[in-house]
Design a protein that fits this description.
This protein is an alpha/beta fold and 368 residues long. It contains 14 helices and 12 strands. α7 packs across α11. It binds nicotinamide-adenine-dinucleotide.
């Protein structure tokens, strides 16, 4: 693997983070980068993410053993078209990072038909609202699922080769069919995003006549709508490249809402209680409670009294413990379990901090 040449097209958040992760496991491997804008090219080169950069995509492709397209979904398809017309190395391994897979895999199958190109669809399931090489992070994909979706161009050993190349990401590699990937992500990712945005828009419209609605919006509303701040361009591409599965989820959700409305209209107390009871039970059983990915966070909620110096008192106790965020929940207390919220990246730090605070104070400390 060390002598191979890897070519990453698109040195944005995902492409540049992949470059860092690849270098982590294979420091001697040559990584070439293409980026349309100069800013990310300079950052990637200066920070040693890549060894050489170009603004001419076609120039490096013929010398690459592995080509990673880290571009928006539409551009991924256009760049597959370009690759199919270039004199690529025999058995070059091509992959992508698009958030939807069926359209890209079908496109690769079509353009590389009868060519000695190995194609594997890829989706690293971690990211953020940040963009560009400046936001790159070698830990971005740690513990996150990295999905491979094979195509008819995926020859024996292709996925194993990619896992070896990407081992420095420390991701959880998994292989599924592209259509199933798109169905599953429509439910757990695409639909929740459009729901969050719909909820925000509903609240804004309602707030025009009821301004207090915005003022009172607190924990529950914030948790439900955080992802409405995602990048609009990326989400437009995702919705447009997975329309059937998403429309099907919308129809299913409408039916479910109608059922809830019926139980309310019927004043059916038992059905409403069961609805909430089952929802709580099922959420508690869900795997989302098992931390994964770089976004994993371990919180402590501390019920501190509203008195001067109390935050400082807590922070002094935690000297030497790595804390990633401090939040004072001073708004509406619904859904909030303590006024001071401390966030840790590591479970051990959270545990140690909880022990220290409980030993030194009488404050209630809840770990989440
Ligand atoms: P980004 O905006 O940080 O980077 C996008 C890259 O595409 C940049 O290098 C940009 O120069 C390039 N690009 C955009 N339009 C182009 C064009 N017309 N021609 C040439 N290059 C162009 O975005 P990102 O988050 O790195 O997303 C890249 C891909 O990763 C997308 O397909 C997205 O679906 C996928 N993805 C994103 C996330 C996430 O949360 N950000 C997670 C998983 C997968």
């Amino acid at each position: 693997m060390e002598k191979k040449v890897v070519y990453i097209a698109g040195l944005g958040l995902i492409g540049a983070s992949l470059a860092l992760g690849i270098k982590r496991a294979h420091p001697n491997l040559t990584i070439l980068g293409y980026n349309r804008s100069e800013a990310s090219r300079i950052i990637a080169l200066e920070r040693g993410m890549v060894d050489q950069v170009t603004d001419d995509f076609a120039s490096f492709a013929p010398i690459a053993d592995v080509i990673i397209l880290a571009l928006p979904i539409k551009q991924t398809k256009s760049y597959l078209d370009i690759l199919a017309r270039l004199p690529l190395k025999d058995q070059v391994l091509v992959t992508d990072v698009g958030s939807t897979k069926a359209e890209i895999v079908a496109h690769a199958d079509q353009v590389f038909q009868d060519q000695a190109v190995r194609f594997v669809g890829g989706h690293p399931m971690a990211g953020s609202h940040k963009t560009g090489a400046a936001a790159a992070d070698e830990t971005l994909f740690e513990n996150a699922y990295y999905i491979f979706t094979p195509s008819s161009q995926t020859k024996a050993g292709s996925i194993e080769n990619l896992k070896e190349l990407l081992s420095g990401l420390r991701s959880r590699f998994i292989e599924i069919n592209a259509e199933e990937h798109d169905r599953v992500t429509s439910q757990i990712s695409h639909f929740p995003h459009l729901l969050a945005t719909t909820l925000v828009e509903q609240a804004v419209a309602y707030g025009e006549e009821h301004p207090l609605a915005n003022r009172f919006a607190a924990g529950g509303f914030r948790d439900m709508t955080r992802i409405a701040e995602s990048e609009p361009g990326m989400w437009t591409s995702i919705l447009l490249s997975n329309p059937h599965a998403i429309l099907e989820r919308i129809a299913d959700f409408k039916e479910r809402l109608d059922q809830v409305a019926e139980t309310i209209q019927a004043d059916n107390q038992e059905a409403i209680w069961t609805f909430f009871y089952e929802g709580r039970k099922h959420r508690q059983e869900m795997q989302i409670h098992q931390p994964a990915g770089r976004d994993s966070a371990y919180h402590l909620f501390i019920d501190v009294p509203d008195k001067e110096g109390v935050i400082l008192e807590i922070l002094q106790l935690l000297q030497g413990i790595s804390l990633v965020n401090i939040h004072i929940n001073e708004e509406n207390r619904e859904d909030i379990h303590g006024i001071l919220q401390l966030t840790f990246r590591q479970a051990e730090d959270q545990k140690r901090a909880q022990e220290l605070i409980q030993k030194a104070t009488s404050y209630t400390v809840l770990a989440r």
